[in-house]
Design brief:
Elements (H helix, E strand, L loop, with lengths): L1 H7 L6 H7 L11 H17 L13 H17 L7 H10 L30 H7 L6 H17 L2 H13 L2 E3 L10 H7 L3 E3 L5 E2 L2 E4 L6 E4 L16 E3 L11 E3 L5 E4 L1 H8 L2 H13 L4 E3 L6 E4 L7 E5 L5 H10 L6 E5 L2 H4 L4 H7 L9 E4 L4 H15 L1
Parallel strand pairs: 11-12, 12-13
Antiparallel strand pairs: 1-8, 2-8, 3-4, 4-5, 4-7, 5-6, 9-10, 10-11
The structure holds zinc ion.
Zinc ion binds next to loops.
């Protein structure tokens, strides 16, 4: 499996990965055609979602959409299926045909079965779609978020200024005109970050109203395309939000003057704002335990712990729905510390098969160095690691 994972990024396979997979090194077995097509469609969906007026595809289609459509048609002809006739139909396929559909046949050990690229309710790219796009050789949407933060860090000059700005972005995926008169508003911070915001896109408005999820603070949309009536009936499963996994106990907040609001760039909403609550919970846990930590630049959310005994210990925080892709990201990314605790939300770590999929996608050599944990288990897991080191000594 790991063999396939490594190839998925179009990179060379590692010896460690092959051993970890426990299968013979078969040389150049190509990535499945359907799998590669699914990846190309993920890129198409992510790229088109950045374009305003998403739902009115007109000819001529953007080049990458036309290429993806052509490749889908070719693949359908090869396997004897009726191909999609247009981009809207292909978009509908991305909403209804999951990774494990026979057309794509993406292995379950790589992408969770049932994963679609377009959300069935929101009709926008799923979080999984953006995660899959991030495994392109250029790093896709997640790399875009890292690049934006990298530029911001340079502009801020001092570390303290950068941390203030980063915190603001993470906590304010949407900014309303009236926020500027609220307590704690900093003109200096806003002037440094406002270029990372833009007007609310048409595709996120319903009858000229913008809906915001009360849990994750990210955009929401109703299934039936009508603004939910405030009150007890406004809740339920018929609302989609960009966070996808939020509880639906409270009605979405309505912003009725969308012209007076700005929204953070999509890549930063998904890869900075969304994991932020988990990041704060992890840092709170470290603070309560008196464990000093300093932010690392580079990864989106990473800290190096101080005074943890022999060896370098880092934490990295993620909110990713696809555990195998997260494992590949960590394996292929920047050099790892002696031990890295990978913190994900409790709800994800507790999900059936999540931990197993993460571990199985790691090369055997890295399985002791990368520990999947949660904000609650972080400090106990850290202690366990230290205990083991002592035992080894
Ligand atoms: Zn939400």
């Amino acid at each position: 499996m790991v063999l396939v994972v490594a190839r998925y990024r179009g990179r060379g396979m590692r010896a460690g990965a092959a051993r970890g997979a426990g299968r013979p090194d078969t040389g150049e077995a190509p990535e499945g055609v359907g799998s590669a097509l699914f990846r190309e469609l993920a890129h198409m969906v992510a790229a088109l979602a950045e374009v305003q007026g998403l739902r009115s595809f007109v000819l001529p289609y953007p080049g990458l959409a036309q290429r993806a459509l052509d490749r889908t048609v070719m693949h359908c002809l090869d396997v004897g299926e009726t191909p999609p006739r247009s981009l809207p139909e292909l978009w509908e396929w991305c909403r209804t045909r999951p990774a494990d559909d026979p057309l794509f046949a993406v292995p379950a050990s790589l992408i969770t079965p049932g994963t679609t690229l377009v959300h069935p309710v929101g009709r926008m790219p799923t979080r999984s779609c953006l995660e899959i796009d991030s495994y392109r050789p250029d790093g896709g949407v997640a790399a875009h978020a890292r690049a934006l933060l990298g530029d911001l860090e340079v502009r801020c000059v001092t570390g303290e200024r950068y941390r203030q700005c980063r915190r603001f972005l993470a906590r304010h995926p949407v900014v309303h005109q009236q926020d500027r008169f609220g307590l704690g508003w900093s003109k200096a911070v806003w002037s440094r970050v406002k270029s990372l915001y833009g007007p609310l896109p048409e595709s996120l408005l319903v009858e000229d109203v913008f809906l915001r999820c009360p849990s994750c603070g990210l955009p929401a949309l109703p299934r039936d395309g009508a603004v939910p009536v405030p009150g007890p009936h406004a809740t339920g499963a018929d609302i989609w939000c960009e966070g996808e996994e939020c509880p639906r106990n409270d009605a979405p907040e309505l912003i009725r003057e969308p012209g007076q609001a700005w929204i953070l760039r999509g890549s930063l909403r998904t890869f900075l704002a969304l994991p932020h609550r988990t990041e704060e919970a992890a840092r709170d846990a470290l603070d309560r335990a008196g464990i000093d930590h300093e932010a690392l630049s580079g990864p989106l959310s990473a800290y190096r712990l101080r005074d943890t005994g022999p060896g370098i210990v880092d934490i990295q925080v993620y909110d990713r729905l696809q555990p195998a892709l997260l494992a590949v990201h960590l394996t292929d990314g920047a050099p790892l510390a002696d031990r890295t605790l990978v913190v994900v939300p409790d709800a994800l770590a507790g999900r059936d098969g999540y931990r197993e999929a993460f571990t199985n996608a790691l090369p055997a050599l890295l399985r002791d160095r990368l520990v999947l944990t949660t904000p609650v288990d972080l400090v106990p897991d850290l202690g366990r690691g230290r205990g083991e080191e002592k035992d080894d000594a």
